[in-house]
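Methods — Computational structure assignment.
A single polypeptide chain was analysed. Its primary sequence is given first, followed by the predicted tertiary structure written as structure tokens.
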Amino acid sequence: MDVTDNLGKLWTVYEDTLWTGVPGDYMNLEAPAGLAEFRKLVDSGDYAKATKQWSSCQICWKLAKSPTRSSL
């Protein structure tokens, strides 16, 4: 994907490496199932548990475990 910044410079952004710097599969296939539980917790007003549940539902949950430039 090509993006132009506010100075008019054109950047090419590769979506696979946008956040991690390395290609990989970062999809959390269990996220859709956990979303129903998250909604139930929010509806019941249990925001502390809902926050923890949301963390486990994040689509890119593997990002925290992915290597960084300093560790490569």
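Note: The first helix runs from residue 31 to 44.
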